[in-house]
Design a protein that fits this description.
The protein is of the alpha/beta class. Helices cover 40% and strands 14% of the residues. The chain has seven helices and eight strands; from the N terminus they run βαβαβαβαβααβαββ.
């Protein structure tokens, strides 16, 4: 009897890293739910992928979409094996503490942190039903306090308070959720994609989306001996 395909949900997946993660998971035999706030864009993206891929409406600015999506998944599959919290944003009026626009910081946190909490809470009951649930929070090296405090770090001059702080907060969520779930099979980790060529940075990144997806896919497909409560890029652990 063939093993039942695992169910994976990737938010913000109609382009960039989310799309590539969806492609790679589908290639590995996962049933992929491609989360998109614009369903038409999601459908166009899903149509280009091979494997069992379908679109599900999730907008981090509208918590009711996550609640509705969780009901759909519950009714159709009864379980969610992988949740990749990929959706996120930046605001170009963000900057260092002395000049950043406070409204920009709030907007970034609403999506990158508060929105991600809401998505995770909506789907966590389904992930806990999995025999090997995996949650991957897509963070950034810019969320590392250690790296931000290192003047020799190649990105030390990038001081965008809202974005960096939102990813540091997301890392704290990873640590605390992993601790909460320590007695379960669920593993929770943060992934730093690295500086990747995407719309988010106006295609300034030096990595391909395939390279930027490596750590995320690896954490999404961990075996039972894999880590939990950690922070990783494609080369290994990242300092908090």
């Amino acid at each position: 009897m063939a093993e039942k395909a695992k169910i994976a949900l990737v938010t913000g997946a109609n382009k960039g890293i989310g799309y590539e993660v969806s492609r790679q998971l589908a290639e590995k035999g996962y049933t992929v739910l491609l989360g998109a706030r614009d369903v038409k864009l999601g459908e166009a993206a899903a149509a280009k992928l091979q494997g069992n891929v379908s679109v599900i409406h999730i907008d981090l600015a509208s918590p009711e979409t996550s609640t509705a999506a969780a009901r759909q998944i519950e009714e159709k599959y009864g379980v969610l094996d992988v949740l990749v919290n990929n959706a996120g944003m930046i605001d170009w009026t963000d900057g260092p503490p002395s000049t950043t626009k406070v409204d920009a910081v709030r907007k970034i946190f609403d999506t990158n942190f508060f929105g991600t909490i809401e998505v995770t809470q909506a789907f966590l009951p389904l992930v806990k039903k999995s025999s090997a649930g995996r949650i991957v929070n897509v963070s950034s090296g810019l969320g590392s306090l250690a790296q931000n405090g290192d003047t020799a770090w190649p990105f030390a001059e990038v001081k965008a308070l809202g974005y960096c702080s939102s990813k540091a907060a997301l890392n704290m969520m990873t640590v605390q959720l992993a601790y909460e779930l320590r007695a379960t099979p669920v593993k929770v980790n943060s992934a730093d994609p690295g500086y990747t060529d995407t719309d988010l940075n106006n295609h300034g990144g030096h990595q391909t989306v395939a390279e930027g997806s490596e750590a995320i896919v690896r954490l999404a497909t961990l075996d039972e001996n894999g880590p939990t409560g950690g922070y990783f890029d494609r080369n290994g652990r990242v300092p908090w």
